[in-house]
Amino acid sequence: MNDGKDNAYTMRLAQAGHIGDGKPAKADTVISQYTDDREDGIGHELILPPDIRSAVDRFLTERDHADALAAHGLNPASKFLMTGRPGTGKTSLAALISRRSGLPLRTIRLDRLLNGLSGKTLENIGILFDRMRFVPCVLFLDEADSLLCSRRGRDDVSEMRRATSLLLQRIDDWNPMGILIAASNMPELLDPAMFRRFDLRISMPAMTGNLAEEIIMLRLDEIGMRLDGRHFENAYEWGSRLTPALIVRTVDGLARETIIRGGDVIDVDELGRRFGRLAAGQMRDE
Ligand SMILES: Nc1ncnc2c1ncn2[C@@H]1O[C@H](COP(=O)(O)OP(=O)(O)OP(=O)(O)O)[C@@H](O)[C@H]1O
Ligand SMILES: [Mg+2]
After folding, report:
1. Torsion-angle region of residue 261: left (phi > 0), alpha (psi -120 to 50) or beta?
2. Which residue segment(s) compose the domain that 144 sits in?
3. What number does the ligand 1 atom closest to the CA of 245 have?
4. Is the C-beta atom of 41 inside 6 A of ligand 1?
5. pLDDT digits (tens, 9 = 90+) for 143-195
């Protein structure tokens, strides 16, 4: 591990976009081999409850004070685990952290990292994480449960077990000049040993009527539409039983129909009905 001062210096280099071998992070061929620079998250603002928003703010603020922390031999928090149902904003939050930290987002390509050949997965993890020590990124491990699943009771004794152990070690050795983000829809599958390795652990919030209202209003504002009707509470109440992704998708669908009919005002009663049908379908699936 580097000491704190070293890290603060490297972090400044990282923020300047050059590091180690002097090449910009984007051009790194090893990193490109195992990760993607696609941004799947949204471009718009995420609506998060105040406690999560302030936890993320604190996490990012520490990076602005890397020098002060280093003077006391401390590093800023740099490892972040988020769990939550599909469509609750995990990928979008990783993209937001990348934008706000100024570090490029690199999503691990599990199809490249995992390899059936004996020892190859371990070698790939080693190569990627070695390189990460010199290239400042937000490294995003989506579907973390596939790599960090519990080693207990698994019959694939050798390769995947060792891959999980190696990854846990590499997470311990993570260089705080970068940010490591892991996300999972299935936290119950995660190896218990991994939780304490993350500085910040967030479980994406359950939806509430207020959050649903904020997400609807933000989305309408972004696409230049308005709401009309009487039963706003219905829409918010039904919306509170959906995920943010379903809310945005339903608003967008109704907006497209409205625009094609030549309007820019969305019928809130119809929006509530659609949310209601989706929520009922979702409950049947559960
Ligand atoms: N908190 C939120 N505020 C506003 N919009 C959101 C929020 N969460 C999700 N969305 C909307 O849902 C879409 C999908 O979100 P995202 O892909 O980030 O979810 P996810 O948790 O990564 O899902 P998965 O587990 O399926 O990968 C986003 O593009 C955005 O439109
Ligand atoms: Mg995602």
Report:
1. alpha
2. 4-203
3. 12
4. yes
5. 898 877 766 655 555 677 888 889 999 999 999 999 999 999 988 888 888 88
Contact 174, 79 (CB under 8 A): yes
Pocket lining: 239 vs ligand 1, CB cutoff 6 Å: no
Distances 186 to 143, 167, 182, 285 between C-alpha atoms, Å: 8, 18, 12, 17
Residues 95 and 41: beta-carbon distance below 8 Å: yes
- Angle at Cα 114 formed by Cα 118 and Cα 178, nearest 5°? 125
Query: What are residue 181's DSSP bridge partners?
Result: 80, 140
Task: Give, for ligand 1, the residue of 92, 98, 207, 222 to mutate: max count of ligand atoms closer than 8 Å to Cβ.
Answer: 92
Same-domain pairing of 219 and 188: no
**Domain final residue pick, 188, 203, 218:** 203
Q: Is 107 in the pocket of ligand 1 (CB under 6 A)?
A: no
- Kindly report, residue by residue over 225-241, the tens digit of the pLDDT: 999 877 888 899 999 99
Helices 159-172 and 120-132 pack at an angle, to 10 degrees, of 10
Give the total residue count for the chain: 286
Task: Name the closest-CA residue to atom 18, ligand 1.
Answer: 89
